Structure formats: C-alpha cells, structure tokens
C-alpha cells in the first residue's frame, strides 16, 4: 500500500511539473500574440491612456480565458465557464489568424521597402499606412473565423476501400466507421455529437471505432451524452482507445464514460472477432506521464498475431513504428486534426507521415488518418474540415 502511495505521489508531481511547464510556455507564446496585436492596434488608432488601459484589460482577459475556463468548468460555475469558453476560444482562433495574416503583410511591406532602397525611390506612401495594415488582417481574420465556425459543423464522410484476401468470401464486405478527436466537453456538446452520430448511423457500420480524444476537459456534464452512443450498436461491436486528452481529462472518468457509452477499451490489448478481423489498440504515449505501468513495444504486441486474418491497429497519433510495419494491415489514427486552422496544417505535414487520408506503407501495411470530427480550443476549422471515416474491407481473391 505504501508503495502504491509513493507511485501515485510521483505521478502527481510529474503531472504538475509538465502542466506547469505547459502553462508557462502557453502564456509566453499566447501573450506574445496579444502583445503583437496591441502594438498593431495602438499604431493604427493612436490610443490615449484610458483607451490603452481598456484594450489592455480586454487582451489580458482573453489571454487568461483558457485557464479560467478550466477553473469554471466545475459544477456550479458552468454559467460563467461556458460563455467564457465560447468567447475566449473563438478569440484564440481569431488572434492566431490575425497574427499570421498580419505577418504576411509585414513581410510584403519589408519587400517593398527593400525594393525602394534598391531602386532609390520613396515608397513611404505604400508602407506607412498603419490603419490600413491593421484593418486588412483584422477583416480577413473576422471573415475566416465566421467561415471556420460553420466549416466545423460541416462534417464530411470520407470513404476508403481496401480489397484484401484476408476478408473471406463468406463475409464479402466489412464496413468500419472511425470517429476521432470529438473532444466532448464545454465546447463540443450534445448538438454537435448528434450531428456526428447521425452520420455514423446513416452508414450502418459493422464496427465502430474511436481513435482517441473522445472527451476533453472536465467530465461533469457529459453523462447525458452516453445515451446517444448507446443507441448505436454495430453487429460486431464498438471499440476505443485513449488519446492524450483522456489522460488530461482524468483517465478514470474518461474510461468510465467511454465504457458506459458501450465501447470496449483496448489498452495494449487484442480483440478477436473469429473468422472476421483482429482489432488491436494501444494507449496514447501521454499516459506515460500519469503512470509507470510496463508497456510492450508495438513489435512485441503485434508479432504473435496470425497473419491470415486482417489486423486492424488503433493508435491515436499518426506515427508509424518502423519495426511494426508489416505486422498490421491497417492502422487507424487521428490526433493531427490536419492542423485544424491553416497554416497549422503546414506543421502537421512536417511532423507526421500524413495528417489526413490514406498512406500506403511497405510490406502491405496502410496508415489512414482522420481529420477528426470535433474541435480542440477554437470552435472553428479552416481548410481542415471535420470528418468521419468509412473503411470498406472487400474480399479479393488471392489469385
């Protein structure tokens, strides 16, 4: 018992350290965006003292809004947490868009200035227009934010077909629907979930899988959503794995919610549907910061599986273990959101083998990455529409 107490204490200290570090980095980076916007706004409108104080107070509130939301998510404070979340997270998306569009304009101004120096011409009439150069990115960001809000509700159905002799002629076709990165919580609630599950229900899947980040933040207001999941009962079952946000939300509560919703959790485990398919799932690496349990390598987990049956591998992050290639037929992942808001997709494309869609790997393995059905942080998506994924496994003769 004493040993368990030491482990729990160590886990708590590790968690507090990483969270404190994350919050510090977040405040520094996010604070930098707000400082940049204040400087731009002051140059454009020539604020006086009181106007500067008012704008500064608003920007400070928006800077700390994501942290305050986590505090006010608790029971009894939802009346304050929910509207603050919508305003604060929408602002987060807006200011990020403002920063990137304004940086592009600043670079163009720099090029014009350089051109003027080289050509020995006065270009100040083009480059010293602070109000114009504030209003252009402000207006553009406003339009994209509004568009992105509606895009986040426009959930698409992506279909990916695989022909394989590992699906028997008797089975013929197996339909798997993947949901990922819904992030149920203060920003994604019953209405959004109904929209997602209506798409799932329409596909009438044989198997439903959730590849992590089903929940996000506090778990107090999600019990009413369980029934929506319970109404969907595919013939071969529902399976889920953890994402990083299951651990951030509280793994015990997240597991209970997911299991009450009817999912079989796979945490380094295999589920056999005899004569049909093998399903293997693993925890997200974020779990290592919360416990010291021993984990098998992906190679050790997958190697013993028979190679004559289709192996579906559920792994939250779209990273491929080179030693595991060829030991699974299809890896389903999410996590990347395709960046959620452009230009972050440029980053996800660099970090992961692919941030959306299918990727053929060596030795007859395939990786498929969902863009996710929900949103994290800002309730907007830009050039990264949400999706559910329909995987159709079709029988193909081995000849």
Structural class: alpha/beta
Strand order, main sheet: write it out. Answer: 1-12-2-3-4-5
Mean pLDDT over all positions = 91
As for the CATH topology of the largest domain, it is: Purple Acid Phosphatase, chain A, domain 2
Helix content percent band: 40-55%
Proper CATH architecture of the largest domain: 4-Layer Sandwich
Under CATH, the homologous superfamily of the largest domain reads Metallo-dependent phosphatases
Order of helices and strands: HHHHHEEHEHEHHEEEHEEHEEE
pLDDT under 50 segments (min length 5)? none
- Rg of Cα set: 24 Å
What is the strand and helix layout of this fold?
Elements: H1 2-45, H2 49-72, H3 78-119, H4 124-127, H5 130-151, E1 156-164, E2 173-179, H6 190-203, E3 207-210, H7 226-230, E4 238-240, H8 244-249, H9 251-260, E5 264-265, E6 269-273, E7 277-281, H10 298-302, E8 311-314, E9 330-333, H11 344-351, E10 357-360, E11 366-369, E12 387-395
Parallel strand pairs: 1-12, 2-3, 3-4, 4-5, 7-8, 8-9, 9-11
Antiparallel strand pairs: 2-12, 6-7, 10-11
């Amino acid at each position: 018992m004493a040993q368990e107490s030491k482990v729990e204490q160590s886990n708590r200290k590790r968690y507090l350290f990483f969270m404190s570090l994350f919050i510090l980095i977040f405040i520094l980076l996010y604070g930098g965006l707000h400082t940049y916007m204040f400087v731009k706004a002051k140059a454009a409108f020539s604020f006086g003292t009181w106007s500067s104080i008012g704008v500064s107070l608003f920007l400070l509130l928006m800077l700390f809004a994501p942290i305050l939301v986590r505090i006010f998510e608790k029971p009894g404070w939802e009346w304050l947490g929910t509207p603050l979340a919508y305003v604060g997270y929408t602002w987060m998306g807006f200011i990020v868009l403002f920063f990137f569009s304004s940086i592009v304009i600043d670079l163009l101004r720099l090029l014009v200035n350089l051109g003027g120096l080289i050509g020995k011409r006065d270009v100040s009439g083009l480059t010293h227009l602070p109000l114009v150069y504030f209003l252009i990115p402000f207006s553009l960001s406003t339009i994209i934010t509004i568009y992105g809000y509606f895009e986040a509700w426009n959930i698409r159905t992506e279909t990916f077909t695989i022909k394989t002799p590992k699906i028997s002629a008797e089975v013929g076709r197996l339909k798997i629907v993947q949901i990922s990165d819904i992030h149920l919580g203060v920003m994604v609630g019953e209405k959004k979930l109904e929209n997602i599950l209506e798409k799932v229900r329409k596909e009438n899947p044989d198997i439903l899988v959730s590849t992590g980040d089903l929940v996000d933040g506090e778990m107090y207001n999600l019990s009413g959503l369980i029934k929506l999941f319970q109404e969907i009962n595919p013939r071969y079952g529902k399976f889920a794995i953890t994402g990083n946000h299951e651990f951030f939300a509280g793994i015990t509560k997240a597991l209970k919610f997911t299991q009450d919703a009817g999912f079989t959790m796979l945490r380094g485990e295999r589920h056999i549907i005899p004569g049909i398919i093998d399903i293997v799932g693993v925890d997200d690496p974020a779990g290592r910061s919360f416990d010291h349990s021993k984990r098998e390598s992906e190679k050790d987990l997958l190697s013993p599986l028979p190679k004559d049956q289709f192996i579906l591998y559920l792994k939250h992050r779209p990273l491929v273990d080179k030693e595991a290639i060829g030991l699974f037929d299809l890896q389903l992942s999410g996590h990347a959101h395709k960046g959620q808001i452009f230009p972050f997709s440029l980053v996800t494309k660099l970090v992961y083998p692919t941030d959306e869609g299918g990727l053929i790997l060596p030795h007859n393995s395939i990786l498929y990455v969902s863009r996710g059905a929900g949103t994290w942080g800002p309730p907007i998506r830009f050039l990264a529409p949400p999706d559910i994924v329909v995987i159709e496994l079709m029988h193909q003769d081995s000849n």
